[in-house]
């Protein structure tokens, strides 16, 4: 493979992969090296259970990917110059004095944070907390997880010398260097959105230890080199470890192939992140009322967005049906949904009962039953209910963004795994009343690799990054259809969703 060679390690909430990228000066080509599952592990203790990420296995899979890439490149004679890691947001690992993990990272879906949001507001005024961080209030956010550590694992927190968010944790064990990359730090509800640094006021008010936090580092910065011990273990050559946009949403955001500055994006995977890109954070009474978040982005930009439960509802439903002995492919589920009755019932994807793992189809039926709607009994009806509800929730957030920014938008750029669902893409265009430009599916990987190019001085800025992505991929456009019916459905949907 000609051109500059790089590795992108991309960890989603349900799977991970190591991808090889080749840059020829005009476009990036991708080659999947290694793909693996990312499944949480639940351990039962004396009085409760805890849901963990299997970090040791995930780091082993990363090393396996590096080994496979080295074998491939050894055959071609090309060198891999760098590696970057992106992951989901908010979660972290705690390290002791020896720099080793004190415990496996706890999964954000663990029940330990229940009640922590209310407790936080008893310590710090809700509006003041939003004024500083500009972050959407979600009980899974890092600040509230750390409050739970104080409540349930106080002795562990006392032994902690360093807290590293997930991409920084992987990068540390690769390079030996510690830092807090800016985009992932902005998911914590502990970062001052204006100053782009940790907020002493927030930490002090919530009673969180500032001593365990590392300095904030901008994306596209060289962090260090691959540890000699890892090179020897894997037979790998020298490569730089780059602090890319560590939050997978912001890696995907960097790769949105827009030709204009004013655009909407929908990063659609286990979570759906719907928003726009701004030059500075927007933190005011309107964004506070809409519970919008201001995430740090690449190139000094701010992603003004809302987190929405996304394909998790489909993924977890599919797992339930597998437990019941029915192994449907995602394509088969979409086909059955396409044949199901339209607008039969709706749910709020962000209702608290849909957050934990478990029998999502049954919870959907119960939601519909309690709200006086027709209950979807068949598989296709459940999936169609999910897809239509997601599309209408996207419309709802679109209205909020337009109200907050005072702008109108001509299209939605839908990137990530959801771009593979023609049904969801078409429904989103129908619900929002504007075209959906679908792709790239591998936006997160493209953005990861692009920030490695920025760190190497091969690419100057986001505008150039997005031009390269447009050169590298073909996007599909979905035009709105049946807009009157969808507008009527939106009115019905608003009755069930606040």
What is the average of the pLDDT values?
96
State the end-to-end CA separation. Answer: 52 Å
Q: What structural class results from the helix and strand content? A: alpha/beta
Q: State which percent range the strand residues make up.
A: 15-25%
What are the segments in which pLDDT stays under 50 over at least 5 consecutive residues?
none
Helix content: 40-55%
Main beta-sheet strand count, sense and barrel state = 7 strands, mixed
What is the β-strand count? 21
- Estimate the global geometry from the Cα principal axes: globular
Rg estimate, integer Å: 22 Å
Oligomer: single chain
Strand line-up across the major sheet? 17-18-16-15-19-20-21
Number of helices in the DSSP assignment: 19
Give the topology, please.
Layout: E1 4-11, E2 15-23, E3 28-37, E4 41-44, E5 49-52, H1 55-76, E6 80-86, E7 92-95, H2 116-123, H3 126-133, H4 142-152, H5 154-158, E8 162-165, H6 166-175, E9 180-181, H7 182-185, E10 191-192, E11 197-198, H8 200-206, E12 216-217, E13 221-225, H9 228-234, E14 240-243, H10 248-254, E15 264-268, E16 271-278, H11 285-289, E17 293-296, E18 302-309, H12 312-323, H13 330-339, H14 360-370, H15 379-405, E19 412-415, H16 422-432, E20 436-438, H17 443-455, H18 462-472, E21 476-478, H19 483-493
Parallel strand pairs: 1-6, 6-14, 9-12, 15-19, 19-20
Antiparallel strand pairs: 1-2, 2-3, 4-5, 7-8, 10-11, 13-14, 15-16, 16-18, 17-18, 20-21
